[in-house]
Transcriptional regulatory protein BasR (Roseovarius halotolerans), 217 residues
Amino acid sequence: MRLLLVEDTSELAHSILRALREEGHAVDLAPDAQTATEAMAVADYACVILDLGLPDGSGLEVLKARRRAGDRTPVIIATARDQISDRIAGLDAGADDYVVKPFDLHELSARIRAHARRAQGLPETRFRIADLEIDRAAARVWRDRTEIRLTAREWALFDALLGARGRVLGKTALEDALFAFDDAIEGNAVEVYVSRLRQKLGAQVIETRRGLGYIVP
């Protein structure tokens, strides 16, 4: 999924980036409030991880401005501020969650997935499609109790389609889910990953809507 990390501490930012990208997420980094505001205005993120103390302003003000603009993207505040009053202020400003540094990266990832699922209106994590058993929380797929191994990018594309199940996603929307701003994108990348998924999961799982995009019915 496409994520935005708003963090000005370089070492911590790259540690989080590395962990999330290894899971197949496309992650943009905003080191300051202005970059964060600009990114949130133009990209459709599944979740935003937001620091409060930024070099050019307050993360809290960024959040308030986006909520006033009608942006309902899930936001997890990740900060060193651990006072109850700070937590209350963050949640009252529109944050969906609040974690205090230092935090466990696996827990952060689980929180991101949970908030993204709820925003999609899909709280269930384990379900079946045709002869496949799918666990979105664990990013795993089985057929007849045998696990089907997907690469991080293959899962990212499949998960994007699962999150929009029953709706067509166009090529641009899928590219946005797979790639960050600084990623090099080959023109046929989406088609390549769809082809690989069909080979592994079955041709009927992902349908093509000619001229529109792809759908998991």
